[in-house]
């Protein structure tokens, strides 16, 4: 049996469709983000500007965060030494969970090794524990939520993206006595649009459903203390489970949920993804907590982040580039074709020392392939103008479409909405 050939053929299919992912070999340099060193195939290094990082606020290099990690590693060593239940629950991890519970004004919080694992573990466990539960899941939910829904083995209904009327219709088709869970995101990572959280909470109350929100692309960045969109809109107490990551706005690594004690205790006690894996290292927990506490008490990073995101959108739109309407810090630039978006990304890196990873199907629907630009507070005005110059030059050389892509996006969402779960994509 030629196993090797089977794997190679599978990967060749992706290559043929221009969806084969290539890692950029980057070396982040303390204090210089968003600049980094890039190493090409011939091992030559050169300085580039990263424009697609999810270290949205640059907290991964913040002095307080780096110091917390260094000091804790020096005083406590590196590994946690065990699973949560077998010697791995270290002091900084306990403090981190308290800090997260306080951030979201919930009774308790539970930390996982990643945001992906938090979603998979929490959604599947919560749904499994509710007898005959039915899950209502937004059509554009992240792969980790889809995985949680699948893993639960419970019945699911997919509502059209952010469509409250459709959610109501689906809820009203189900026996009122059945336990229900509505799972959705606050900021959708690829389009940068925001969920109608209040309306979803109203429906949840009316139909007796639990609410589960993924705030991965919002925590640290929105709300007076960085508690996310639900905090920004004064709705945290109306959400049953708030899920977040420590790896994006907070700049470190790990994921979590915050909820009432009964939910946290149940997930802690039943989720294999939580029980049978080594706990996060103490130094990492201390770093994440330093980041959360800094952002709770300081709004400067958030303000600057919003300013640079607005400026980037305005400047790129003014240059006639197809910037998609986005309510948030995520700036999608639609190319609409896998080959073209790869060519644009390569040209930006090779000719302009700008790194923006292409985003392809299945992460986004076919025909909406894009460059997903993520300005941070550390991108200067000058860098934004350099970006504009580079993009205009690439758009001209490759003769890429310039018309606004919003109409195409709306159409593609509708047609991609066959209301089955999309296949998992990174
Ligand atoms: C919406 C959403 N949820 C969850 C995750 C997973 O978070 P993490 O990177 O911490 O695993 C991501 C990651 O990219 C995401 O976009």
From TrEMBL:
GO terms for molecular function: 5-aminolevulinate synthase activity; pyridoxal phosphate binding. This is 5-aminolevulinate synthase. GO terms for biological process: protoporphyrinogen IX biosynthetic process. Signal peptide: none annotated. Residues 48-390 form the Aminotransferase class I/classII large domain. NCBIfam families: 5aminolev_synth. Its EC number is 2.3.1.37. Keywords: Acyltransferase, Heme biosynthesis, Pyridoxal phosphate, Transferase. InterPro entries: 4pyrrol_synth_NH2levulA_synth, Aminotrans_II_pyridoxalP_BS, Aminotransferase_I/II_large, AON_synthase_class-II, PyrdxlP-dep_Trfase, PyrdxlP-dep_Trfase_major, PyrdxlP-dep_Trfase_small. Its cofactor is pyridoxal 5'-phosphate. The lineage of its organism: Bacteria, Pseudomonadati, Pseudomonadota, Alphaproteobacteria, Hyphomicrobiales. Belongs to the class-II pyridoxal-phosphate-dependent aminotransferase family. The keyword Transferase applies. The keyword Acyltransferase applies. Homodimer.
């Amino acid at each position: 049996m030629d196993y090797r050939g089977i794997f190679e053929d599978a990967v060749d299919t992706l290559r043929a469709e221009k969806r084969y992912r290539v890692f950029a070999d980057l070396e982040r340099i303390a204090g210089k983000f968003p600049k980094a060193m890039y190493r090409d195939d011939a091992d030559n290094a050169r300085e580039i500007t990263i424009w697609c990082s999810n270290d949205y606020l640059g907290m991964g290099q913040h002095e307080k965060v780096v110091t917390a990690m260094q000091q804790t590693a020096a005083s406590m060593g590196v590994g946690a030494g065990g699973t949560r239940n077998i010697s791995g629950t270290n002091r900084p991890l306990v403090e981190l969970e308290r800090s997260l519970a306080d951030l979201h004004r919930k009774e308790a919080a539970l930390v996982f090794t990643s945001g992906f694992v938090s979603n998979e573990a929490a959604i599947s466990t919560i749904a499994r524990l509710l007898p005959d539960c039915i899950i209502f899941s937004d059509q554009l939910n992240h792969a980790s939520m889809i995985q949680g829904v699948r893993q639960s083995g419970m019945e699911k209904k997919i509502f059209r993206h952010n469509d409250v009327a459709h959610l109501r219709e689906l809820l009203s088709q189900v026996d009122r006595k059945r336990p229900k869970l509505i799972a959705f995101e606050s900021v959708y990572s690829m389009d940068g649009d925001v969920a109608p959280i209040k309306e979803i909470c109203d429906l949840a109350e009316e139909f007796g459903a639990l609410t589960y929100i993924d705030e991965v692309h919002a925590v640290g960045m929105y709300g007076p203390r960085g508690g996310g969109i639900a905090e920004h809109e004064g709705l945290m107490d109306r959400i049953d489970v708030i899920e977040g990551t420590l790896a994006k706005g907070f700049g470190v690594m790990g994921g979590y949920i915050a909820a009432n004690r009964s939910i946290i205790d149940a997930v802690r006690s039943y989720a294999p993804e939580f029980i049978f894996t080594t706990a996060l290292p103490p130094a990492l927990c201390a770093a994440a907590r330093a980041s959360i506490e800094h952002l709770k008490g300081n709004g400067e990073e958030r303000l600057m982040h919003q300013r640079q995101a607005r400026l980037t959108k305005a400047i790129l739109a003014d240059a006639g580039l197809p910037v998609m309407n986005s309510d948030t810090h995520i700036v999608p630039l639609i190319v609409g074709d896998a080959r073209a978006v790869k060519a644009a990304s390569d040209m930006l890196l090779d000719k302009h020392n700008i790194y923006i990873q292409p985003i392809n199907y299945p992460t986004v629907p076919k025909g909406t392939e894009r460059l997903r630009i993520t300005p941070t507070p550390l991108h200067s005005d000058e860098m934004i103008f350099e970006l504009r110059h580079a993009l205009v030059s690439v758009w001209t050389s490759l003769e890429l479409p310039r018309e606004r892509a919003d109409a195409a996006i709306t159409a593609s969402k509708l047609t991609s909405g066959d209301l089955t779960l999309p296949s998992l994509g990174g």
